[in-house]
Amino acid sequence: MSQTTCIRDVDWLVGWDGRQHVYLRNSDLVFKGPDIIFVGDRYVERVDIELSGKDRMIIPGLVDIHAHPTTEPIRKGITDETLSPGFWHSSLYEHLPVFDPVDDHGRLACLKVALAELLLSGVTTLVDLSSPFEGWTETLLDSGIRSFVAPSFRDARWFTTNGHSLEYDWDYEAGQKAFRTAQKIVEGVENHPSGRLSAVVSPSQVDTCSEVLLRDSHALARDRGLSWTIHAAQSVTEFHEMQ
C-alpha cells in the first residue's frame, strides 16, 4: 500500500483552483503514491511521512515539448555561438554535423547530462526527438522522468562543400529502414507498464523526407492515435529550398 506524504507549510505553492493557477502561501501538499490528494491550508489527517516546505517553492512539473537530449549537450556553447554567414547564420548545415556524438556511448553520456539538467530545472515530462540507440528508453525510464520517445527517421542528410550551398544525400532505402525501426519502438512503448513512457511519430525534417515517408508516417500516427511532429520553418535556407 502506498504511503501518504505531506509537505508541510510550503512557503510558495503554485496550485490550480479549477479555473486558473494561483499562488498559495504556507500551504500543505499531500500525495499518496502517484496522486496528489490535498492542497490547502492545513492537512489534519494522519500521514506516514512529513517533510518541511520551509524556504521551498513547489510548482507543477514543467513539460518540454521538443528536445534533443542525446546530441545538444555536446554542442552547448558551440553551435549557439557560431556564425554561418553562407546560411543566414543557421548552424544546422555547416556546424551541426561537426559537433555530434560519434557513437552510442557519446549519445548515452549526453542523455544523462541532459536529463539531470532537465530534472534539476523542474521538467518532469519530456518529448525526446532522437535517433534510436541501445539503452535509450532504458535510460529514460531509470531517470524517473515521464517521456514521449520520438525516434527520428529521414530519407536524406544535409551537407555542404563550400559553406553556402546546401546539398542533400538521398537514400530512400535507408529512410524506410529507419522508419521501420521507429515503428517498432513506437509499438514497443505503447501501454508501457511504468505509465511514464509514451511515443510520438517524428519524421526528422520537412525537406529531408520524401512525400511517401511523410504520408506513411502520418498514417501510422493516425492509425495508432499518436501525435505526429516534424521540423519545419527552421531556416531561411529551408524556405528557399522548399519554394
From TrEMBL:
Keywords: Hydrolase. InterPro entries: Amidohydro-rel (IPR006680), Metal-dep_hydrolase_composite (IPR011059), Metal_Hydrolase (IPR032466), MTA/SAH_deaminase (IPR050287). GO terms for molecular function: hydrolase activity, acting on carbon-nitrogen (but not peptide) bonds. The keyword Hydrolase applies. Signal peptide: none annotated. Residues 57-235 form the Amidohydrolase-related domain. Pfam families: Amidohydro_1. The keyword Hydrolase applies. This is Amidohydrolase-related domain-containing protein. It comes from marine metagenome. The lineage of its organism: unclassified sequences, metagenomes, ecological metagenomes.
